[in-house]
Design goal:
Order of helices and strands: HHHEEEEHEEEH
Strand content: 15-25%
Number of strands: 7
Shape: elongated
Number of domains: 2
CATH architecture of the largest domain: 2-Layer Sandwich
Largest sheet: 5 strands, antiparallel
CATH topology of the largest domain: Beta-Lactamase
CATH class of the largest domain: Alpha Beta
Distance between the termini: 10 Å
Length: 178
């Protein structure tokens, strides 16, 4: 095999890797960002209603959602000091606390979208929205498990890897036979 064939094979090998890595990155990014969609809608809508003076207890369902197992969107309302007013999200029979600084960031920016890991193996796509009325202010957190998003992301990674391996076989045969 001459140097030109080796160089061509190397260029095609690297190009193929970059193409499949880019495809995976784009699809994974879209999947991950879609993981926030319902929470954005619910957080903004709930904050809008709370801004009219509505009672947080009337807005958050009385059901309990185990955030380590359930895929439902859960809701928490915090007062302006960061204390939970009401929440239907539970982890090991307690209401998990959001990380320090999340409310500070939200206070300045109005909304915060974050990946929250309250326990090993529990990853949440959370949206925190600031609200204020004439009598009170606080924060709405809407969260949802990333379990299915991460499962789909792994499926996409496996497909991209298989596509890349297939392209490497094709490149190898092409370079060998030219």
């Amino acid at each position: 095999m001459n140097k030109n064939k080796i160089l061509l094979g190397l260029i095609l090998f690297v190009t193929s890797g970059l193409v499949f890595a880019s495809i995976y990155a784009m699809v994974q990014h879209v999947l991950r960002m879609d993981g926030y969609d319902p929470q954005i809608q619910y957080a903004e809508g709930t904050a809008r209603v709370l801004s009219t003076g509505a009672d947080p207890m009337a807005l958050v369902p009385n059901s309990s959602i185990d955030i380590s197992k359930d895929l439902d969107v859960f809701a928490s309302v915090y007062d302006d000091q960061g204390k939970i007013v009401v929440s239907n999200g539970m982890l090991n029979n307690t209401r998990p606390s959001i990380p320090a600084g999340v409310l500070d960031y939200t206070r300045v920016h109005g909304q915060n979208r974050l990946t929250w890991q309250p326990a090993n193996g529990v990853r949440i796509a959370a949206v925190v929205q600031r609200y204020s009325s004439t009598t009170t202010a606080g924060f709405v957190l809407m969260g949802r498990s990333l379990r299915e998003v991460e499962n789909r992301s792994m499926d996409i990674l496996e497909m991209a890897a298989l596509g890349w391996v297939g392209s490497l076989v094709f490149i190898g045969l092409f370079v060998y036979f030219i």
